[in-house]
């Protein structure tokens, strides 16, 4: 962490100040005369938590994308299709088995196997050919989108969360005051669970890449795969495992998206674009950058939709434009 602060002193100060202001608005007591129970503070808190949990979903999609695109330099523009396929498969498995958690296991394995097929048949034969990878994966995404539209139609599907995650949970944050009564913020349990799971997953991924032997081999293979191969390491197998893991994460994110939003045709392009923006803002190949970029984009979308709905879409691209103008490698990129 000290090395990170030394490398990015300006951005560390900016992020710390932004976090302090946000924390003040969340914790500080507001006047009780604003509105009764649904006061402005509750609206603000809901917008913030919606933005953070949406950022958690974006992180799940973008973390797989940053492994494949940012770290391995494979331009996989079919990543959004993997997300949508995971959502549809998750819906079918959860409906057939009645188990929400079991659908995560099945979908991760199924989409990861599809990722192995893509790595072996497409990217292994086109290493370093960015234009060919782009064109081929665009074609694959179109084919997958048409197949999914044929199988599931244009209807939207909602994946039901288990009973123990339904309903709201009361958070220790004052949302409104009415006389002597204090009302705490109530927020959907499933979104809190997904946020916690995303944080744990992000920490584990960072530790795996930076503190384990397999992470060292992955980073060495990206920097100089010929030298790593000459040392006896089977680089293609390592890259295939990483690609499969990134694809599996996209499939799992499809279940998450279908749980607190919906699964519908066209979401593949939305989440592909969101992943690109998150990776550009956060920095190529950086798990911490993907987390930071996902939270920034999620907050910009949700706060914008509440306080400036006409221009909410613009805020996302303003953030991306500012990062490209002043720090082209991304907030946490090197």
TrEMBL record:
Membrane topology: Multi-pass membrane protein
Subcellular localization: Cell membrane
Segments traversing the membrane: 12-31, 43-72, 100-123, 135-153, 190-209, 237-260, 272-299, 306-326
Predominant place of localization: membrane
Keywords per UniProt: Amino-acid transport, Cell membrane, Membrane, Transmembrane, Transmembrane helix, Transport
InterPro entries in UniProt: ABC_transp_permease, BCAA_transport_permease
Any Pfam family hit: BPD_transp_2
UniProt entry tagged with the keyword Membrane: yes
Family assignment from sequence similarity: Belongs to the binding-protein-dependent transport system permease family. LivHM subfamily.
The protein's name in its UniProt record: Branched-chain amino acid ABC transporter permease
